[in-house]
Design a protein that fits this description.
The protein is α+β, with helices and mostly antiparallel strands. The protein has a single domain, classed as Arc Repressor Mutant, subunit A. About 45% of the residues lie in helices and about 15% in strands. The chain is built from six helices and four strands, in the order βααβααββαα. It has a four-stranded antiparallel sheet. The chain is globular, with a radius of gyration of 14 Å. The termini are far apart.
Length: about 120
């Protein structure tokens, strides 16, 4: 297995992180990764959220999150496994990911999203 490179956490800036999280699909994806807690296939973790997007769109979102320093990607054959860089992000931006967890997904609060199928 090989890992795809991501930026060193000390070079990640809050404006890039917040910009990446501003997209509802990416925010949902990060929350789902947090809940998964370990390496998982990106399409599998997103499927659990009810969000339906194409493979190329998913690849774009994963790239944006990786470039923002939020996730790590590992190649396993034809699959791309992803995990949240929780400890590193928490060290760089204390409380950020905990806040995302506390203020759960809009769907859980009964607010519909144009990105969900339900």
């Amino acid at each position: 297995m090989t890992e795809v490179t991501e930026p060193a956490i000390e070079t990640v800036t809050i404006d890039v992180v917040l910009s990446a999280l501003a997209d509802p699909v990416r925010l949902t994806f990060v929350r789902a990764l947090d809940a998964a807690g370990d390496w998982t296939c990106g399409s599998d973790v997103l499927r659990e959220t009810g969000v339906t997007i194409g493979k190329s769109t998913l690849s774009h979102h994963i790239k944006v999150l990786r470039d923002a320093g939020l996730i790590r990607t590992r190649v396993d054959g034809i699959r791309r496994l992803v995990t949240l860089r929780y400890d590193e992000v928490e060290q760089r931006f204390p409380g950020l990911l905990a806040m995302l967890r506390e203020h759960g997904p809009a769907r859980a609060r009964g607010i519909s999203s144009p990105y969900t199928s339900g």
